[in-house]
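Run log // design_07
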């Protein structure tokens, strides 16, 4: 894999049209774990509930002891929202579910 392939561009629903390059392996691991735990229907999960459920699914080699999982969860969440893969409900606390 070339150094260029080590990165992936992600979006942020809060900053439309703006892309950020992040580590592909960590992003894909977090994306897959997040999508595995989010339900298809409302009310969905809070971000804290999703994090609790996805932590055991993350590779220990990438997220030792869950390190930096919160940052990567937010990056994946905002990207997947921007791509229309997941939705947030207008609730407090914020709840997420797959489209």
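design_07 sequence
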């Amino acid at each position: 894999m070339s150094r260029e392939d080590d990165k992936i561009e992600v979006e942020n629903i809060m900053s439309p049209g703006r892309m950020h390059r992040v580590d592909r392996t960590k992003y894909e691991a977090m994306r897959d774990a997040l999508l595995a735990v989010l339900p298809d229907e409302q009310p969905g999960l809070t971000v804290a509930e999703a994090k609790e459920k996805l932590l055991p699914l993350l590779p220990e080699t990438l997220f030792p002891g869950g390190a930096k999982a919160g940052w990567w969860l937010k990056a994946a969440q905002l990207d997947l929202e921007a791509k229309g893969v997941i939705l947030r409900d207008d609730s407090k606390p914020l709840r997420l579910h797959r489209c």
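The chain has a mean pLDDT of 94.
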